[in-house]
Amino acid sequence: MTPLQLCARLERVRESLRRLALASVAVWATGSLALVLLIGVLFRVTTGQPSRALVIASAVVTAMITVAWRWRRARPRDISRLDAAIWVESLAPSLKYSLVTLAEQDRASDADPLHRRLAAFATQTAWERSAAGALRQRRTRVLGRLALAVALIAVAAYPWKLRHLGAEGNSVAALTRMADTPTPAGRVRASVTLLPPGYTNRPTRTLAFGETVSVLAGSVIRVDGEGSLVGTALLVQESSDSGAGTPRSVHRAPQDDGWRGTVRVGFTPIALRLRDVIGERWLLVTPVVDSAPVATLLLPDADTLVFDTTAMIRVSGIAHDDIAVRDARIEYIISSGSGEQFTFKSGALATTRGTSSRDVTLASTLDLGALGLKPGDLMHVRLTAHDGNTLTGPSLGTSETRTIRIPRTDARDSVAVEQLPPTPVDKGVLSQRQLLLLTERLVARIPRIPPPVVLNESNRIGLDQARLRKQLADIVFARLGDNPSGEHAHFAGDGHDHSAADLASQSTPESVLQAADRATGGVSGMLDSHGDETPVVAVNRPLLEAYNAMWDATRALQGGVPRDALEPMRRALAAIQRARSAERIYLRGTPPAAVVDLAKVRLIGTDSAAFEARRALNALPAPERRIAERVLRGIALLIANDGTARDSLRLVRLDALSAAPTLAAALGDALEALDRGRDATSALLRARRLALSPWRQGPGSALWLGAP
Amino acid sequence: MSDMRFTFATVQYESGDWDSAPLLAANVIDAVARYTSIDVAPSGAIVPLSSAAMLRYPLAFMTGHLPVRFTAAERAMLRKYCDRGGLLFVDDHNHDIDGVFHKTATEELTQVLGPLQNIATTHPLYRSFFTFQDGPPTTSHELNGWGDNLVHDHLQGIERNGRLAVIYSSKDYSSEWSFHPENKRFLSVDNTRFGVNLVVYALTR
Q: What is the gyration radius of the CA atoms in chain B, in angstroms?
């Protein structure tokens, strides 16, 4: 064999080695891809994670990394003729580097004697057979490994071939097609049973994977599987507002020849997933919530006003529930009283219990007389119903409430009473405590000051005591509903001059009690009575006691005996304190529109009151003044001497005819009324007003013609 | 009147005597004006519970002695009012947990909004303006032994979105605060200060 022929054969060996190196890289890549896919599939079968895309991506990335690594290590493109010669020399050591030496030559030549000698030596050795055998073995090994890797990939990908029908489309049709598919060998047999909540008394029902079912919330879904737990998984996946949640494994208990897992349906849709080595089957479950009963009151159909307390009123209603109405009743509440005092009683008219019907009708009759209703009472009637939900209930359904009102006999006579703000405080009045302190101080000074000074100071304190008593009387009269100023303009001990008859009739404690008596319906002896007293007197009692005590104190002070005034003054102070802490009475009526003076409350108010400048009144001219005086005297005389008064007024009218025709006309009307025996008050008032007005105007001014 | 003013609203409901504390509104308004710079309307408003006008008032006051039975429209509006940030202050004018107002009002509130829970004495409500270390201030009516003869330590409430949507009181602030505000000058301590806390809480939470 010539050197050139030898080199050509060595070149073929090099080419075979390069192909084997490439095939080895492919085997590594395929093997790593198959390995990662297999691991991912096993995880998905057992736990449901990770996703298919993640598994594939991981496998591809791993394969690419492996290719890079093996390419860098094997370097198929870098295999040279020398590398092939060295590989051959390793198989046939008898070559004694003749082949390597020949391969090292840049250009082999048949003419070169060294090359010919090397070729002749290498030809004597049977290296080609050894190399061909080694190449065949390596080729077989690589192909075998490649086939194994491809087979692993096929195994890993097989479950997806079925499952992508449901998983990718996630449609009920796909699930149904899958359920209709004949069970392949190796698929787990499982039966699904629906157990409704016990209170519904509904029978159990058989379900199948691939269905979409609506079940009552609280139901239990039981899955009975055959065979071993290994290689299968029962998962439940809850739906939420943000999409499907993470699947979680359902606990399964081993049975005689299989296993059993149960899932309770809550208030969110779920997907029940049974996974085995073949694939996955789904059962979609949507919960139906047990609704509360719907109660409707048919009669009375509106709020009612009933004047007859012995009337009979029909009451009826219906209740409906989606499962069953367990009990229903028509209940009532009767409210009696007013203000702060209310009493209540309640009861039921018609009751049904333990029904299993979805619709219940109730009817009864309200006997107002038997219920003891009185005028002023208020009755609320409604229908209530419960269902038998023992899981989240029982749910209550109520109807609209109807009101039956028995009006009070005096309902139309009542008036709205609004609470008034307190009267402004008279800061010029000394308080009872201040008066007491002044009196005690005066009593302490009596040994050191002369009696006239004692009398003078005692009278002065007595005057202040009387003023305070007047303030108290105003409050008492206001509370009793009388005119606060109606007591009188003067009062005993106020320093003014009035007759004894006035004092006796207007300013004594008895007069105040009489006012209270009138205001409270004629109950006498209030101060001595503690039972059956009216609220008005009960509230005013402390003030009346203070009023009495002040009266005693005033008399003692004005008598110049301040020592005797101390005890009643202390009693008055104690009574005022009791009145301050007395309980309040709330009067109901139309809610007053109380408006808060915000500026005043926040102390930012300004005195914005505008007063019109006062103008001095001009005195009447002399002739007019004389006419006016004659008119007033004539009117005053009407009471004592009617005839004389009429004559005087006629003379005045005569004098006024030319100068003051309107006054003359008014007097004429008054005289005509008097002559005919009619009421002349309005005409006399008009005449008096005209007489007192400046009816003679200045030059250029229009004449005032009096009131229209 | 500007719409931005705070207006104290009294809830008018179909059943019962919703108007049993007519002067309470003026008193709370007076307290708000006296202690704060809140732009407040000088008089209160009366708003039907079933009306959409409820949504104009951040704080609504409800009281009564008689049974409370909401209509369907009232229930719907109450639910919407609380979900949208309103604060309903309910006070039992009977101050009696065995009374019919308490039983029916709590039943209705529970049915519409869920169960009432005790409000802790450390709740921000008691520190929103004045500080009430011991929780809700007592009223003279419960101290005098009226009603259920109990001094209630807690108010109750229902929360929505981390804030109180309903405050329920058995302490009878309706009687305690229903007097003419001019009479406050006779009080050594203003007993309507807690009303300011209610208003500030409703406006800031």
A: 16
Chain A CB contacts of B181 under 8 Å are 594, 596, 601
Residue A331 at interface with chain B, using a CB cutoff of 8 Å: no
Per-residue pLDDT of chain B (205 residues; tens, 9 = 90+): 446 799 999 999 988 788 888 889 999 999 999 999 999 999 999 999 999 999 999 999 999 999 999 999 999 999 999 999 999 999 999 888 888 999 999 999 999 999 999 999 999 999 999 999 999 999 988 887 777 788 899 999 999 989 999 999 999 999 999 888 888 888 888 889 999 999 999 999 8
The beta strand positions in A368-428, using DSSP E, are 378-387, 396-398, 402-405
Count Cα atoms within 13 angstroms, Cβ side, for B79: 13
| Topology classification of domain A172-288 | Immunoglobulin-like (2.60.40)
Tokens of A624: 């007019």
pLDDT for A55-69, tens place per residue? 888 888 998 999 999
B17 is a domain residue: yes
Say if the Cβ atoms of B175 and A602 lie within 8 Å. Answer: no
Q: Tokens for A73?
A: 């290590």
> What is the reported pTM?
0.47
Contact call for A591 and B22, based on CB within 8 A: yes
What is the tally of structural domains in chain B? 1
* CATH number of the domain encompassing residue B80: 3.40.50.12140
- The CA-based angle A172-A175-A178, given to 5 degrees, is 155
Angstroms from B21 CA to nearest CA on chain A: 8
Q: Which domain holds residue B77?
A: 9-204
In angstroms, the Cα distances linking A690 to A388, A623, A663, A665, A687 are: 91, 14, 6, 10, 5
Using an 8 Å Cβ cutoff, are A295 and A385 in contact? yes
- Asked if A353 is an interface residue toward chain B (Cβ–Cβ < 8 A), one would say no
B111/chain A closest Cα distance in angstroms: 9
Per residue in A267-300, is it b (16+ CB within 10 Å) or e — as a string? Answer: eebbbbbbbbbbbbbbbbbebeebebbbbebebb
Touching check for A593 and chain B: CB below 8 Å? Answer: yes
Decide whether A172-288 matches A297-410 in CATH topology: yes
Residues of A in contact with B69 (CB under 8 A): 380, 382, 400-401
User: Six-digit token pair at A584?
Assistant: 């309040």
Pick from A335, A382, A589: CB nearest B66: A335
Q: Which CATH architecture best describes the domain A297-410? A: Sandwich (2.60)
